[in-house]
Protein 1
Amino acid sequence: MTKLKNRDAIKAQPIVLIGMMGAGKSSLGVRLAEALETTFLDADAEVEKAAAMSIAEIFEKHGEAAFRDGERRVIKRLLDDGPMVLALGGGAFMDDQTRALVQQKALSVWLEVPLAELVKRVKKKPDKRPLLKGQNIEAKLTELMQTRGPVYATAALRVDVGGGTHEQAVARLLAALDAHYAA
């Protein structure tokens, strides 16, 4: 486990993980929260709980605009609960109001992964990704990266979590967080 010089500062506010689908926001978020001895929450799971239906069902029955509205309200509520590690869905940070809220109340961390690796990862569970339904996965991810990349780049931190094990990625995250708070 990485020895943190700035553990208290890191744990003082919510850490919000953003990035493309397949970047590891949930899987790495759980491990990061464990390393920091704090709570982990997944915004998508919290939206599903609040709506009593899956994200795919929300998209199908109510559309993306209704999903984003509900998502924004859930994220606001979660960020008001204090320090934690919170994983956002891939499109959440694209919403201007959600992004402003995150930037005001939390430390945003972009989990960056090369396109080829993202394609491999999401092909394993394409049914869980409403935006990929009926799409060429590589083409759609390329399009999403081009659109989302400049917005994700406004995050407070940017950490390459591609390649290697989950443990190595979490170590890189912890080192980046520690360095951020040392400045």
Protein 2
Amino acid sequence: MNAAFLISLKVLAVDIPLLLILGTSLGWLLARRRFPGREFVHLLVLLPIALPPSVLGLYMLILLGRAPLIHDLGLLFSFPAAAMAPLLPALPIMVQAARSGFLAVDEGLEDAARTLGSGELSVFYRVTFPLARRFLLAGLALSSARALGDFGVTLMIAGNMPGRTQTLPLYIFSRVEALDLVSAHVAAVLLTFVGIASLVLVRALEGKSHERLA
């Protein structure tokens, strides 16, 4: 179980920064930019929420196994695949939270900052980001929890190899298959504890953010 726990932590170490960067960028793009096909892009981003994990896993399996250049990287059934697998189902949660946060920011405040001579990056980091931070933190908590608990997509493209790609959800599955319910229960409790701890941490950060903005 220790190996599966460490692999899950490594997956989160890779996915959390990617969720924050990609989710925030896509959320801002969908909230603040008008371009042809924006609604289609929004629909495409949210589609993984509506699709079963087996369907997502199948498409990723085909992409990683048959697409030119990508196939040559040999990502299938490796740790990189285990890290990539949770991103697809978790990213829409972060994107939607970021989009809602940026839509909630009063554009008049941003315009006021621009009239005072602030550039676009300065406006984003000093005005937009702090005001949308609560949404971003909530989205990061939910999407990280979704990534931590991913099972179906990870199983299909990374496999269930102990010490290499076996995360905690896959470990629980293996223990249940072996009728070792005690070990499965211990891992399930640990997984639940990690999820709760991450949410408590985010709530604490939100509280500090409110204090600074008050």
Protein 3
Amino acid sequence: MRNISTIAGKEFKAYLNSPMAYIIICIFLLVTGTFFSIYLKNIDYTDTTIRGFLQYANPLLLLFAAIITMRSLAEEKKMGTWELLLTSPVRDVDVILGKFLAAMGIMIIMLAFTLYYPLLLQIFGDPDMGPIWTSYLGLLLLGGAGIAIGLFVSSLTNNQIISVVVSGIILFALWYLGNIANNNYMPTGLAKVLSYFSLQSHSTNFTIGIIDTRDIIYYFSIMALFLYSAVRSLESGRWN
């Protein structure tokens, strides 16, 4: 556990020492804040929810998860520290979990700044806080799934651009599976399968205040699968 916390702390400081984390947070706040304001303006403040924020926060989280993780392992290979990492007296699972927690730390900070939105709603209205808090839980789970996928892809290449592009393709493919499943021409059985594997379909319940254990299990399964795959990728690199 100490190795994990040490690696997580080191990686987290590296994020904070890089302008990339601040740029990502600022862009996220600028985009989501703009559409949050536009949404409230169009409904004349009668709907005291964070729907305007959530509408763009979900896909942006996936994009930024790919960007945040693109340097996690790909940069180790590019900078020549990959061999040092592989020969260090730490387990592969410690390395992956440490980097995962560091990236999650940046994600949590990014979401924490958006708590200004529900605070604003409380000042000027009477929002139902239940769906708001469950929406944030859904965002954290979605972000965790995105980071796990990004880490796995980053472990496969030494090129950060390839890492972010491939991660983005996988993440948005999983997100838009829900839209494909809603196609009326899709066979019912296939539609159900695609809908189950869609990141988007499992985020819907959180936005309306429902915490379904099936959604939580799905997100944790995605995280476990891709983190395990990243560990196996690290192990194969050690032996090669």
